[in-house]
Structure formats: structure tokens, C-alpha cells
UniProtKB/TrEMBL annotation:
The lineage of its organism: Bacteria, Pseudomonadati, Bacteroidota, Flavobacteriia, Flavobacteriales. It comes from the Bacteria. This is Uncharacterized protein. It comes from Flavobacterium hydrophilum.
Amino acid sequence: MSYTLHVYFTEEKNYNKQTSFDSVKKLFSNSNRVVFTNAKNIFTKEDYLKLTIDNRYNISVFFDDNATVSDDLEYILGKRLKCNARMRFLFAPDPENDFDDVAVILLDYLESLDKVILYSPNLKKIIFNSFITK
């Protein structure tokens, strides 16, 4: 089964698609296992980043910066926060767990960011929250 992870950016920084995709590329810049491809969503025609690992495993990275991002986060939290963007990671099925190392690298990186909320639609729960409300 595939797995999806949403990363909500709750800082007031101006996140954009290119810098977000570049940050993911930088994580694996010294790896000869990962190939990056810019692709287009066949339904929305939006650009996304595709990571291909060892020529047989894919992770798709999408970037959203529209009004639905805040609405989705409000639905998850039950309250409104300033949220201007999110990245969505779609991990291909990995029944033998051959690519867990790549997922761990991504998760460690995302957890190191300030004021982010990581949400698992598969589990329907927040798995990490570095945004502290006062």
C-alpha cells in the first residue's frame, strides 16, 4: 500500500515550490541512488518532483500554496492557524521495506524544520508538531 505524508508550513515565511523542491534535492545530492525528475500531474497539470530510487522505487512530492491548504489544516486541528503552504509526499508501496532509509532521511529533515505540522492521511493523525501555540 502506498503511504502519504503532508507537511504544513505554519511559519509566515513565503515558501514556494522551487525552494521546497530544491531542499528535497539537496538531501540526496550526494547519492547516486536517487534520480530527480520534474513531472506534471495528469489531472491538475501542476508540476511536481519525482524521486526515483535504485531505478525501481518512486516518491512523488507535490507543493500546494492555495486557500485549501489553510482549510485542510483547520479541519485537521479544529482551529485556524496561519498556514501558507504544504508539501505532500506520496511514497510508492514498499512491501519488503527496501527503501525505509530514504523515508527516514526525509522524515528527519522535515522534523528539523521550525513550525511545521506533519500529518498522515493514512493514519488520520498528526505525527509531528513543532508549532507551539501560545
